[in-house]
Design goal:
By secondary structure, this protein is of the alpha/beta class. It contains 14 helices and twelve strands. It binds NADP nicotinamide-adenine-dinucleotide phosphate. NADP nicotinamide-adenine-dinucleotide phosphate binds next to helix 1.
Length: 366
């Protein structure tokens, strides 16, 4: 039976669920796939808190450590540097690094893992959105082709098959005419409320209280998260685009970018009239206002508010669901559409694990 070593970088909401799902399914994979998945290290900022590259960490120990972090207790001090752990694991056998961290700092260890022959799976978008002239970006995107050793399904639409659908369309020779989608549950929920007559600033508060935003809602409302996803779709299609070349509508006024969250929420009222008027204009034209990301055939990427016809899949969507529509040469009149929940620990972890299992069939046989 093939052994696959997994290094889990980031064990918060998503990474913790990955560790728990591996512990829960390990016996089934041994039986069904002839694959024994060992979690050999996990941790967070600064390095691994738990390591056993030889035999793998005991399932109960994994679960207990994840529970301790979730409850805010237990020892979380890093004991080993990621790059040393990766080298040690690769020397024992086929290894996959799972990046469920936040921010682009993990690009260095992802690139190092690829260079050492390991696989890399990401839910973390930031490393894949680094400028193209960053050498780590070149290494990661070279590994990101559909038969490469870097997989990133969970970066766009969480567990939904967005990236795999795009790869299949491109690999079979279809020509991409336009990708468009609603890639943020937060904006979906906010603009559904605005369409039913709620003031924008009130909708942001309600959606924050319902737990759909990041702890600081500016992280969503700046549009950066959606811009990174659109960038990943554009680069996957083969367009050489950087974040600086994307036209993004932000809802974070410059003077509210710093300071308290309450101050930011209070200041949002100044946008209520403008957004309310846009919503009524959209309604009068038979449409509804949505926060849409699009990539056209030339690779131009736009992220912002649009009036979308209510008769379309995108226009009919309400609440936090995500949708991505691929209009191609073969699917022109009726585009291929992928939709469903685009966030959440269980589905995002499952998206990463799907990548891990597929990569696990080939990694180590270079
Ligand atoms: N939550 C979702 O539904 C969802 C959906 C799709 C994609 N994602 C993406 O998945 C990633 C994880 O999300 P999450 O909700 O699980 O976040 P989270 O709960 O905040 O957990 C983040 C984890 O990453 C670790 N980390 C942060 N910076 C790091 C660094 N430089 N090096 C190593 N580890 C680092 C943290 O370390 P400590 O333990 O030391 O704090 C923590 O363990 C994010 O990039 C997010 O955008 C999330």
């Amino acid at each position: 039976m093939k052994q696959l070593r997994v290094i889990q970088v980031g064990y918060g909401t998503v990474g913790g669920a990955v560790i728990e799902q591996i512990a829960g399914h390990r016996a089934a994979w041994q039986e069904r796939l002839q694959l024994d998945v060992l979690v050999v290290a996990f941790g967070g900022r600064g390095g691994a808190v738990c390591v056993d590259v030889e035999d793998g960490i005991d399932d109960d120990e994994c679960r207990e450590r994840v529970r301790q972090r979730r409850d805010g207790g237990g020892a979380t001090r890093a004991t080993s540097e990621w790059e040393a752990v990766i080298s040690a694991s690769v020397s024992h056998g086929p290894t996959i690094v799972m990046d469920a961290a936040a921010g682009d700092e993990t690009a260095t260890l992802n690139a190092a893992a690829l260079e050492q022959g390991a696989g890399v799976v990401l839910s973390n978008k930031a490393p894949l959105a680094l400028p193209l002239d960053d050498p780590r970006s070149a290494i990661m995107w070279a590994g990101a082709r559909s038969n490469g050793r870097l997989r990133y399904e969970a970066t766009v639409g969480a567990g939904l098959p967005v990236i795999s659908t795009l790869h299949t369309l491109l690999d079979t020779g279809d020509e991409m005419l336009e990708i468009s989608g609603m890639l943020s549950g937060t904006f979906g929920a906010i603009f559904s409320d605005v369409a039913s007559g709620t003031l924008f600033s009130e909708a942001v508060r309600t959606v924050k209280e319902a737990g759909f935003t990041e702890p600081d809602p500016r992280d969503d409302l700046s549009g950066l998260d959606v811009a990174r996803k659109a960038l990943i779709l554009a680069r996957t299609t083969g367009h050489q685009v950087d974040l600086t070349g994307i036209d993004v509508r932000s809802f974070v006024p410059a003077d509210l970018a710093e300071g308290s969250i309450d101050g930011f929420l209070d200041g949002l009222g100044r946008m209520d009239d403008e957004i309310g008027t846009m919503a009524s204009d959209a309604e009068a034209g038979g449409g509804v206002m949505k926060y849409v990301a699009s990539v056209d055939a030339r690779g131009a990427v736009k992220v912002g508010l649009q009036s979308v016809s209510k008769g379309t899949v995108m226009g009919a969507l309400t609440g936090p669901e995500n949708v991505v529509s691929f209009r191609t040469d073969r699917y022109d009149q009726y585009p291929t559409v992928v939709s469903g929940p685009g966030a959440g620990a269980a589905v995002t972890a499952a998206g990463m694990i799907g990548d891990m299992l597929r990569l696990g069939q080939t990694v180590g046989h270079a």
